[in-house]
Write a structure and sequence with these properties.
single chain; 442 residues; alpha/beta; 7-stranded mixed β-sheet; 3-stranded parallel β-sheet
Length: 442
């Protein structure tokens, strides 16, 4: 079955003319039509458009992703397609240009099959905060897929596309990857251009891919990584050959640091312990380490991220961007537009951020959080001078049921407790599926 093939194999078969791009897109379109009514992974599916692009595609032997279908989180611009960010405020807003990652993927022959569902403006850990509908976890339709990149994770998990892109501000690629049993990567800050990504928290955001296997992940990362003059935070460090790195990866001799942690569901802890034993059996060196400041990461994150969001989202006022709800004057127009357009969680975070940045509170909250951020970054980098990797569970629990955490925002925020520290430090991180317990990935 074509839809079950990995991305690298699809590209090989197309370049060897054993498959046509149209055959590939048609196979995924058929699967989409079968499963999407139950899963609801896409806000704007573009399979019909993709079929036309596939017909005109002229694959070359150099194309790394010739004819490979890719799904995009709906905060990444694709020219001529709606970019809603999961919000009513941007419903009907059509992108005027391609994000840099889209341009680079297109140049390598990729074909885009749709914009995926997400928590509004990437604020959430379950995709329940989408303004349009909930996306369902393919392992259990009564459970969340994680967030905010839940739609992209489901697209890959259900084989609606072999690859997808999301964005990760505090775990929004890795957490849904964990809940859906796929691989999710948050690259180093600046490694992948953010040009064309609608910003949530600019010093934390990073576009990252979802895949089923490491070779596919290396392939798409190789394409999207690299300096971009349109992104002032983009790194000029040369891009490694990730495909070669995957092929020569060796566990023996790997130095693994394992921080102390608590509050983890027994199924997750058991799976993680078996993983550590497997690493040891294959020759890795495992050592428990103590991190003095990491327990403050979630506190610092939920001051810094909302503060940056309150600034970034100020542009969505119905005048510069967004659908307008008119009032008697400009001030009332602003208020009505933002009140009707933003959902509850977005309003909550804007208010939190505005408060933290306000006169009289800046030093007490935002400045202090930035100091803690520096302490966390220095501590993690210090550990990595003596170890190759730091290993922890991606999430404290497996996928939870719809509505389970909606009435308790703090409980929802704690879903990111193990993921936010690397965003604060600007480091790369990956979530790997380790096992399945009672029909749910760990």
């Amino acid at each position: 079955m074509i839809w079950s093939l990995p991305a690298y194999e699809i590209a090989r078969l197309i370049k060897s003319k054993e498959l046509s791009p149209k055959e590939v897109i048609s196979a995924f379109f058929e699967r989409f039509q079968s499963l999407e009514p139950k899963l609801r992974a896409f806000i704007t599916p573009t399979f019909e458009r993709a079929l036309k692009e596939a017909e005109s595609l002229k694959p070359s032997s150099e194309m790394l992703l010739a004819g490979v279908p890719i799904a995009l989180k709906d905060n990444i611009n694709q020219k001529g397609v709606e970019t809603t960010c999961g919000s009513q405020l941007l419903k009907g807003s059509v992108a005027l240009f391609d994000a840099t990652v889209v341009s680079r993927l297109r140049a390598e022959g990729a074909v885009f099959v749709g914009k995926t569902n997400m928590d509004e403006f990437a604020m959430g850990s379950s995709t329940e905060y989408s303004a349009f509908f909930k996306t369902h976890n393919p392992w259990d339709l009564e459970r969340v897929p994680g967030g905010s990149s839940g739609g992209s994770a489901v697209s890959v998990a259900a084989r609606l596309s072999p690859l997808a892109l999301g964005s990760d501000t505090g775990g929004s690629v890795r957490q849904p990857a964990s809940f859906c049993g796929v691989i999710g990567l948050k690259p180093t800050y600046g490694r992948v251009s953010r040009y064309g990504l609608v910003a949530f928290a600019s010093s934390l955001d990073q576009i990252g891919p979802f895949a089923f296997n490491c070779k596919d992940l290396a392939l798409i990362t190789k394409v999207i990584a690299g300096f971009d003059k349109s992104d002032s935070t983009s790194s000029k460090v040369a891009v490694e050959d990730y495909l070669e790195s995957v092929q020569r990866a060796e566990v023996r001799g790997l130095r693994v640091a394992v921080p102390k942690f608590e509050g983890v569901e027994s199924a997750v802890e058991g799976c993680f312990d078996r993983f550590l034993r497997s690493l040891e059996e294959h020759g890795a060196y495992i050592q428990e380490v103590s991190l003095k400041y990491i327990h403050l990461a979630i506190n610092a994150y939920y001051v810094i991220a909302p503060s940056e969001a309150s600034s970034n989202l100020a542009r969505f006022d119905g005048v510069r961007y967004g659908n307008t709800v008119y009032g008697r004057d400009l001030d009332e127009t602003y208020k009505k537009t933002r009140s009707a357009g933003f959902g509850k969680e977005v309003k909550r975070r804007i208010l939190m951020g505005t408060f933290a940045l306000s006169s009289g509170y800046y030093d007490a909250y935002y400045l202090k959080a930035m100091k803690v951020r520096t302490l966390i970054a220095n501590e993690l980098k210090s550990i990595l001078r003596d170890f190759d990797i730091i290993v922890m569970p991606t999430t404290p629990t497996r996928a939870f049921k719809f509505g389970e955490k909606m009435s308790d925002p703090v409980s929802m925020y704690l879903s990111d407790i193990f993921t936010v520290s690397v965003n604060l430090a600007g480091l790369p991180a990956i979530s790997l599926p380790l096992c399945v317990y009672e029909n749910l990935p760990c």
